[in-house]
Records
---
Amino acid sequence: MNKLTSQKIADFAKGEYHIAVVDQIDSTNRAVRTMAEAGAPEGTVLFAEQQTAGKGRMGRSFFSPAGSGLYFSILLRPQGKVADPLKITAAAGVAVAEAAEAVLGIDLQIKWVNDLYLADKKVCGILAEGAFDAKGGLNHCVLGIGINVFAPKEGFGSLESIAGALAEESLGEDLRARLAAAVLDRFFAWYSRLEDGALMTQYRQRSYLQDRWVTALRGNERIEGRVVGIREDGALLLEDADGVRHAFLSGEVQLENYR
Ligand code: BTN
């Protein structure tokens, strides 16, 4: 297996980042949060070959076996910049899709709010964790991205029916480093223009859920409806069987046979 190194990623990246790669860690999101609290600068990026306790949304875990994926977290300090975590997640989703298109020539779809799909299988998950100051402003955000680049040698186990990978391992030489660099470059390009309408246009164009019947879950609320769009602020819009529209800024969406 071709090792991921910070030098290789930096060789392919165009921007200025502070990149580190470790062999194994519990969670890059947890580690970067600790770095943020110790004063690390924006653009600090930590990659791990393997995570032993990768975190997903809603308290779930994220399967992060050695050598086959990209598991990394980016430290953001938006400060005065309007930086809704939803827009940061949207920018990350679009960045991963654009990177996959540029490096591999494949089209990924984005399942609101933070998953990327290829051929009806989840290939990437995104977890943005914000830390807020006393006035409710966003002090920093740890943006975690997990991409299944190759299928793990041991398979996806219990996730086999829902998880997929971007590429065959025969494409191996430096592919992960090139993808990593492309995601960082695309993400920071969008991060500097989060309020640009083009971001949500790109996001909508890749929407996996458009026109599908779904169940949206928010706390104890459960609404079934057809996805009719995604609002400029990132809210998912559903129309229920009575024609009533519902907007979701947070929560979780289930398709039949999907989690
Ligand atoms: C999800 O699918 O619910 C989100 C998954 C996010 C996984 C990434 S992998 C790198 C970073 N570190 C973590 O512990 N989680 C994120």
---
Amino acid sequence: MGNIMNETVLVLDFGGQYSQLIARRIREQNVYCEVLPSETDAETIRSKAPKGLIFTGGPANVYAPDSPKCDPEILGLGIPVLGICYGMQLIAATLGGHVAEGGSANKEYGKTNVNIDTGCVLFKDFSPENICWMSHTDYVEKMPEHFTRRAFSDGCPVAAMGDDARKIYAVQFHPEVVHTDNGTSLLRAFLYDVCGCSGDWTMSDFTERSIRALRERLAGSKVLLALSGGVDSAVAAAMVSRAVGRDLTCIFVDHGLMRKNERRQIEDVFGTKFDSKLVVVDAEERFLSKLKGVSDPETKRVIIGNEFIEVFQDEANKLGRPEDFYFVQGTIYPDVIESGAGTSGKGAVIKKHHNVGGLPEHIKFKAVVEPLRDLFKDEVRKCGFELGLTKEIVMRQPFPGPGLAVRVLGDLTKDKLDLLREADFIFRDEIARAGWDDKVNQYFAVLTNMRSVGVMGDERTYDYTVALRAVTTTDFMTADWAQLPYDILQRASTRIVNEVRGVNRVVYDITSKPPATIEWE
Ligand code: XMP
């Protein structure tokens, strides 16, 4: 849909690890912002009429031949600019200053004491000696003409500089990370005092405007959506449903690999609280027969992905010709950035195997509609609340597309899946009761394919081992095992062996990622 808000700030990505974080921090200040590749030309930027520009950090040396540069004309557009770290060095080098290759005396990494000129518009709320997060060796040795030095540190003769007339500012440290004291106030001052933003990016506004835009585009057409049970597709469904009501049909494929009660929840919400049509496809047998005897994880994924497409296609054909339908997808902004469409893709990692989907490539719909394309995950959740979805759906932890198929190790049977569903339900229940569901990012049970000897009421047993997994993570690329209190583990273990037939042993996974992955398969 493109940006439907008024004000935009653009972040030019020079390959720094914090580029997405900067964008999120800006949106937290109620200003819409997009990440663009560093090589975006001045004309493209002018056409987007941004209120301000931010140049991110990056690992390169500005004078290296292959280092990312920006179109120098950008600095002459009259748009306020804030350079951060590499962004600062690039501004200095581009406007006639000089960047020195630092040595051990200049290298600063971590929390650093920085002397601040609190008279600068950006530093109103800073202390004269402010703790800032540094990560650099090179430094600005000579400022360009018309710039004033606004901060320095032991390793950095110019830790901040600004040209008030041209509204170009730059800092060597990282205001976007929490380790910089008053970092948020710097970003806020740039957005509001320098760029003159009014802060029109709020989720309630966005939600209302999106609904209106969707209604204008789609009302009277046939619209289709594949509900997966995950947060993104649920929020997309709720939004499109508010926009076009019964013109929308949601298809939920129950592949028999869902967690306990999940299908019922979907039926409760989308079958009753929203006006759209809901088609629930009971495809358990179809999936299980295709998966029979298959124990290799990647093969399971491929089978499930393909079967999903077939089942969906069969259902869609019952409703009419696909080319008459708009197809709604719950793509979110990090997917857009990671696919390389948003940025230069430098350093971006794509997880290809992850989503069961890829539907539009197989089916020729009229067009694909992505109403959440501009949102970060936390914004999607806020939007979900705006639309009246409950915490149960909006705060749901991530669940892999292939579902419990990759949590029953080895070959699958309905009995094993049922057993896992019960064990998993108990573990999640105990975590929630203890108030730990907000403290861990993903937690679940795994049915190992190991059986061992136990004793229950004088009887010898030879039953399965269930493994419990709980992790904390921000990006799911790396994760720590969660240090759950023993009493949660104890209650979960006791209940699982008592309440789930076929399990006589429970273990807790204490491996981080890497070297392990979050899922066991
Ligand atoms: P791993 O196991 O790779 O998981 O550490 C990282 C995150 O991705 C999820 N995951 C998947 N999601 N399809 C999905 O939609 C998949 O095949 C898949 N495999 C892993 C996993 O739950 C975790 O959040």
